[in-house]
């Protein structure tokens, strides 16, 4: 039994065994090590057909997503059988059959027969691929449908009715004189049959075959029908369309005038008439397409080399109702890759007894014992890691609560998560602390460390220098401010802000300009006969400026007075207007103090302009602040230096940094003295930093996903964040 298990490991997994045997030899188990190495060498020499997982099975899937669920079911079954199976590749019909014949892809679960017979008959494909089993025997219908309301109103029974003007008008949305028929994408086999029907029944001039991306076009059809519009379309089963527009309730199947198929399918014309079709306008119903079997299709050489796969494909059947149910879920929003995999696994578990019988028979064909799939996957992930007797060098930095250093030990969320990853991959490592973000990243970039973990934000600038794992924590930036200030410090802060405010100097500048204008007018009118305003320019202007200033501020009069009538009139005007000029100046100063006092309370990012902002150098926060044209900031080399400046130097009004780190500081070291304010902004994801093209990246990513799926990540998260 152990021998058969070993034969199904990949060559990479065998390398892992070599590493383990070498470790045994270091423990003086030299006899077992020699026998183990001999055994591995024998396994490496086995032909690929004798090792179920020597090479991953390459699966295809169709361009129509209603067939992707079946692909995931087959993939999961093949994995249960013991094979490694690549993620299915989306291929058009032409591409799949061509690549399958060339051995570039092994199989798919989306053959429609007899519709796809024409591919099997092509010279470059003939005899190289074959359909296997009957996934959905006789359950695939195709045909033309119209909304039931229009069919009843205009008495539409067959495609021939599309020659009638009133019927054409009902479906002519673009007003080109032809009815619009949503048909098949150009690379689908059904497109040839639809075009043939339109020619055969004389409809080429009255019906337009609408081709494009079927799914969104069909969604538009569904919406138009629900709004009471007339719709005409081609569809097939199983497909979500017959769940959205139910035959005999929302739509009806149309008959064709008489059975007719393109050359090469003539022998199937009698099969286009069938009974018991729900929603057809007649019974028996001539749909124009034969009922199809959905079958797996595989490369013939691949099947010969893998009899267990052939046995499994021959047995698998999936009820049409189950496919239809899944299609409905997909339409309701459960359609991403994870949903498809979960739905496939749920179907397998719901049919576990039947599935086990298929697997048992397939294993018996090739004499393959049951395996521990989880252990096999772990071995494969571990095998992707290069052999090394030297522990990994992992650098970190204090970044509470992600990395905490107490009692000469590192702990924290990131540390616990890394330990779980290393345990899964059986990695030994040395954890080394550094003092700054810059040093942390530099160690990895120049190859002095294999990876870095702390709370390292994944940014575009860093991606240019390093590789990153999948994100393992979603964070962002936030603002930290003192929770309270003394009245004196608040006053000094406001005064300092006023002195730095452009509004103050704008008001002073306007007043000076006005005083200079008044001084020139008064000096010009008084200079020739009034000794108090000397005739020399600079002396005279200064005396006139002094008179204008004391007059407008109402400090006093009498030391200098104009004597000429014109000077006295202008002086009188200046006295009255001076009230308004000085009031404007004082109002500007008062407004500046008021605004600065109001703005002295920082409630978020929008209040930071004009404030003394600080952060940590080369952090994600520093990158963000550097891009803000209205903010000036000071950066500190380490987080500890930043906290010291905040607590002792009083040179910082606000700190911008990673939200969870600031929140931790407020609840511990800064409790009662500081607070975080405003919303979290600038979304940021943390990842493990690695060297470019690191050999550890894929294995770490696979293990991260495994920890998520197994619930271990959630356990670590709850321990640190609750």
What does it look like?
The chain has 722 residues and is an alpha/beta fold. The protein folds into five domains: 2-52 and 371-383, no CATH class; 60-139 and 295-366, D-Maltodextrin-Binding Protein, domain 2 (3-Layer(aba) Sandwich); 142-290, Glycine betaine-binding periplasmic protein, domain 2 (D-Maltodextrin-Binding Protein, domain 2), CATH 3.40.190; 392-476 and 685-721, D-Maltodextrin-Binding Protein, domain 2 (3-Layer(aba) Sandwich), CATH 3.40.190; 501-599, Helix Hairpins (Orthogonal Bundle), CATH 1.10.287.70. Strands 13, 16, 17, 18, 19, 20, 21, 22 and 23 form a nine-stranded mixed β-sheet that branches. Strands 3-12-4 form a three-stranded antiparallel β-sheet. The longest helix has 35 residues, at 565-599.
| Helix-and-strand structural type | alpha/beta
Task: Outline the low-pLDDT stretches.
Answer: 1-54, 371-375
Please give the count of helices.
29
Indicate the percent of residues in helices: 40-55%
Radius of gyration in whole Å, from Cα?
40 Å
Question: CATH H level of the largest domain: which superfamily?
Answer: Periplasmic binding protein-like II
């Amino acid at each position: 039994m152990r021998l058969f298990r070993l034969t199904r490991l990949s060559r990479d997994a065998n390398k892992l065994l070599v590493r383990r045997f070498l470790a045994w030899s270091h423990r003086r188990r030299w006899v077992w090590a020699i026998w183990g190495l001999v055994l591995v060498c024998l396994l490496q020499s086995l032909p690929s057909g004798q090792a179920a997982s020597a090479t991953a099975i390459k699966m295809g899937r169709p361009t129509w997503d209603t067939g992707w669920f079946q692909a995931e079911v087959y993939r999961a079954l093949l994995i249960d059988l013991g094979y490694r199976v690549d993620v299915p590749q989306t291929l058009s019909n032409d591409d799949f059959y061509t690549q399958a014949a060339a051995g570039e892809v092994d199989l798919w679960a989306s053959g429609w027969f007899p519709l796809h017979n024409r591919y099997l008959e092509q010279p470059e494909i003939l005899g190289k691929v074959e359909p296997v089993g009957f996934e959905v025997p006789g359950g695939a219908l195709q045909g033309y449908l119209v909304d039931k309301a229009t069919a009843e109103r205009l008495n539409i029974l067959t495609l021939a009715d599309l020659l009638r003007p009133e019927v054409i008008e009902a479906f002519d949305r673009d007003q080109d004189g032809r009815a619009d028929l949503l048909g098949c994408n150009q690379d689908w086999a059904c497109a040839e049959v639809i075009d043939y029907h339109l020619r055969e029944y004389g409809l080429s001039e009255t019906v337009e075959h609408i081709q494009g991306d079927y799914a969104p076009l069909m969604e538009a059809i569904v919406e138009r029908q629900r709004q009471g519009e007339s719709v005409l379309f081609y569809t097939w089963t199983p497909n979500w369309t017959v769940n959205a527009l139910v035959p005999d309730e929302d739509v009806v199947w149309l008959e064709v005038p008489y059975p007719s198929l393109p050359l090469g399918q003539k022998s199937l014309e009698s099969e286009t008439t069938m009974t018991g079709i729900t929603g057809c306008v007649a019974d028996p119903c001539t749909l124009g397409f034969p009922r199809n079997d959905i079958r797996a299709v595989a490369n013939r050489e691949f099947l010969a080399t893998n009899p267990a796969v052939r046995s499994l494909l021959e047995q698998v059947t999936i009820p049409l109702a189950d496919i239809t149910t899944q299609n409905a879920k997909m339409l309701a929003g459960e359609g991403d890759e994870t949903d498809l995999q979960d739905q496939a696994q749920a179907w397998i578990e719901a049919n576990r007894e039947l599935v086990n019988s298929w697997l048992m028979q397939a294993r018996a064909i090739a004499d393959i014992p049951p395996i521990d799939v989880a252990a096999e996957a772990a071995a494969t992930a571990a095998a992707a890691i290069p052999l090394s007797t030297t522990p990994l060098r992992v650098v970190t930095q204090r970044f509470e609560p992600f990395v905490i250093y107490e009692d000469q030990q590192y702990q924290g969320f990131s540390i616990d998560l890394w330990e779980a990853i290393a345990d899964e991959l059986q990695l030994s490592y040395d954890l080394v602390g550094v003092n700054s973000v810059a040093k942390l990243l530099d160690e990895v970039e120049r190859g002095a460390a294999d990876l870095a973990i702390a709370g390292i934000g994944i940014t575009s600038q860093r991606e240019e220098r390093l590789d990153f794992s999948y994100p393992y924590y979603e964070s962002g930036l936030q603002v930290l401010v003192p929770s309270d200030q003394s009245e004196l410090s608040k006053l000094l802060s406001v005064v300092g802000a006023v002195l730095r405010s452009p509004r103050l100097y704008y008001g002073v500048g306007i007043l000076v300009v006005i005083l200079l204008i008044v001084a020139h007018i008064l000096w010009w009118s008084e200079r020739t006969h009034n000794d108090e305003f000397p005739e020399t320019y600079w002396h005279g202007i200064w005396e006139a400026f002094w008179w204008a200033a004391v007059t407008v501020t109402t400090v006093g009069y009498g030391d200098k007075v104009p004597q000429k009538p014109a000077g006295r009139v202008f002086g009188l005007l200046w006295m009255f207007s001076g009230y308004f000029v000085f009031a404007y100046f004082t109002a500007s100063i008062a407004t500046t103090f008021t605004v600065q006092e109001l703005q002295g309370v920082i409630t978020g990012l929008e209040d930071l302009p004009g404030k003394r902002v600080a952060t940590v150098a080369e952090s994600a926060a520093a990158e963000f602040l550097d891009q803000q044209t209205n903010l000036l900031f000071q950066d500190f080399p380490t987080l500890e230096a930043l906290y010291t400046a905040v607590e002792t130097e009083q040179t910082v009004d606000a700190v911008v940094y990673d939200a969870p780190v600031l929140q931790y500081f407020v609840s511990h070291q800064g409790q009662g003295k500081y607070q975080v304010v405003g919303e979290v902004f600038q979304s940021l994801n943390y990842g493990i930093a690695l060297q470019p093209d690191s050999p550890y990246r894929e294995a770490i990513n696979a293990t991260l996903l495994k920890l998520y799926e197994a619930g271990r990540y959630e356990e670590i998260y709850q321990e640190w964040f609750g």
